[in-house]
Amino acid sequence: MASDTGSSTLPNPHHRWRFFRAGGFDQVLLETGADLLALDTLDQKLWVALSCPVAGIEFDKSTLAFVDSDGDGHIRVPEVLSALKWVGSVLRDPDLLTRRQDRMPLSSINDATDEGRAVLAGARLVLANLGRPDATEITLDDVCDTARIFAEGMYNGDGVVPPQAVADPELRAVVSEIVACYPPQLDRGGEPGVTAETIERFAGEAQALAGWRAEAVNDPGILSFGDDTEVRYEVFKALKPKIEDYFQRCRLASYDGRAATLLSPSDEDYLKLALQDLHGESEPLAKLPLAVPGPGKALRLADGLNPAWAAAVLRFSAEVSGPMLGRADELTDAGWRTICGSFARYEAWLAAWPETSVEKIEPARLQAILAKDCKAALLDLTERDKAVQPEVDAIASVEKLIRYTRDLCLLANNFTSFSDFYTRKGKATFQAGTLFLDGRSCDLCVPVADVAKHAAIATLSRVYLVYCECRRRGAVEKMTIAAAFTAGDSDQLMVGRNGVFYDRAGQDWDATIVRIVEHPISIRQAFFAPYKRIARMVGEQLNKAAAAKQKATEDQSAKAITDHGAKVAASRPDAPAAPPAPFDVGKFAGIFAAIGLAMGAIGTALAAVMAGLFKLAWWQIPFVIAGVLLLISGPSMLLAWIKLRQRNLGPILDANGWAVNARARINIPFGASLTATAKLPENSDRSLIDPFAEKKRRWPWVLFFLAAAGGAALILWKQGHLAAWIGK
């Protein structure tokens, strides 16, 4: 334990351990903080588990994320020891680990170590930001809600500066405008802000955009129409492909006169148009040339135009060609080249446009921002924010400390030992809940990701396992569990049966059996198993015989009806019907003889048995009967006893990714506690009168046994055994 000077707690290499025996092996007791901190001195061969998965266990996921330092999804021995070593260097009193509280007195943090001082500074920063600087303790809820922690603080160490964290109104406005230009970057408080990288990007893009705009202002040749250049360029751009197409056709016509006719609309083109409903925006009409081409022909701007483009040409004449060339009635090839040349520099200037989101800001406003040179001031804000990063990072350490203080003892007791499982005082981390099915409740239920893979390994456990698919009512949630049945029998357990599964949170799931791994459940079940198998076999044979007899009778009846109908149809209408055949006693003689023979055989067998029994003394008869029962049920019971002694928890957990290091047996008494059968409450009243009970008819059995006993007695009398036995 820590001394009064605040020195850190170190493990005792000569620690005195206490063990308890459960599951057929010794398990360490972890009762004090000193026990936990000394775990690194305990031989790993005595640890129950050496690895466990993060997924599929009932444990706080955030705590597991801290323990799983390498993030591989498994908790291993070195990670458990590392967590205990860290918490031992931060706490003054390691016994806090056994109290499992979600709050931490500041006085319990050891400020004599670097780790302790950092955690204490983080705790005080949290309390200060929450408006409780004088608080003497901090809770897990305090450190988990980072949005609440940093809602009021100006700096939070993440390098993200939101507008509300800027005191200067002008800088705050600039930050707001920068935030609006780029995808939001949230700070720890959940507010959008700017980082140093964002500020640098904004400054570079703003300078590039301002320089691009200044180029057009400084060079009059770019904006040939001044402020109206953009509008008139759009008019030019809309007609440029069609005008270029027209003059190219005229140039080809000048090259070869035959091309003029071929490049003009054909008769077939006009015939197609004649069959359509033409209008100004008709696509087939718009595809025709702007005007009929000819060698060296100018483009008339007022007449002779394709109707689909007439309005656009008139606007082009009024806003572009007229003001630039001084003529509004026609456009020559040379004039067209002049217009294209005048817009060439503007097009090159547009092509050099720096693509950026900064253009959302008005040009005048952007110029004002650049004139103020806000970059340096904004970067200074981000540096101030980053300056508190060590204190802010310590907040995560505060959360880790509180989670470790609350959960490490529980983790160790479900890792180093399985005390919760074997003492039955609580549920282990690998227990997913309780399954209610077939009048029983099963406590050993583990989640399963892949039934086939799990069953291939879990069958080595020698435990009777039922795999159930579970669904939440009214939800799409689904999970699969493996439940161990360790009491009762398996007569009514079959694929398709339904039950209800209650998870550790108390939620109920509809459970359906999808697979069964069969193993003996109890010695009692093994005793009756041979008789049940014989009964099933006899029942199956009787069913087959009855079905065959019924089919033969139905076939014979159908044949008789068919034959009779054929005879009636073939006979004369007035012919009298043949009388029914008289009862033939001879046909049934064989049946009566068979029945008598069977009764005789049964009687002979019983007589032989009775003869053997009558030769014995009365006190020997119970031993003979017990021997017969043992002969029938003994092998089944012996095999069940061997398998029940081999039941092992390890393969069930190994199939889920655990590395179980011990032979964690489930013996018969402990197994019986894992599955509870239905029992009436104490002091309850029970009526044995069932108004709907089936009425049992005993006389057929009475007649059968009387006949068998009479035959046996007759045979014994004839052989003289009966008189000899009575004479004794």
List descriptors:
alpha+beta; 19 strands; 728 residues; 8-stranded antiparallel sheet; disordered N terminus; 52% helix; single chain; 3-stranded antiparallel sheet
What is the rounded distance between the termini?
87 Å
Largest sheet: 8 strands, antiparallel
Radius of gyration: 48 Å
- How is the largest sheet built, in terms of strand order? 13-15-14-17-16-11-12-19
Which shape, going by the Cα principal axes?
flat
Beta strand %: 5-15%
Number of helices: 27
Count of β-strands: 19
**Helicity level, as a percent range?**
40-55%
Describe the protein's architecture and organization.
This protein is an alpha+beta fold and 728 residues long. Among the domains are: 19-151 and 390-421, no CATH class; 163-218 and 361-387, no CATH class; 226-355, no CATH class. It contains 27 helices and 19 strands. It is flat and about 150 Å long.
List the helices and strands and how they pair.
Layout (H helix, E strand, L loop, with lengths): L18 E4 L2 E4 L4 H5 L11 E5 L7 H7 L6 E3 H14 L5 H4 L3 E3 L8 H16 L7 E3 H5 L1 H4 L19 H13 L3 E2 L5 E2 L2 H23 L10 H27 L2 H6 L3 H8 L8 H4 L12 E2 L9 H16 L4 E2 L1 H19 L11 H10 L2 H13 L1 H25 L5 H5 L9 E5 L2 E3 L2 E4 L2 H8 L5 E9 L5 E8 L12 E6 L4 E10 L5 H48 L14 H30 L6 H25 L4 H5 L4 E2 L7 H7 E3 L21 H21 L1 H7 L1
Antiparallel strand pairs: 1-2, 3-4, 3-18, 5-6, 7-8, 9-10, 11-12, 11-16, 12-19, 13-15, 14-15, 14-17, 16-17
Helix pairs in contact: 3-18, 5-18, 9-16, 9-17, 10-14, 10-15, 14-15, 21-23, 22-26
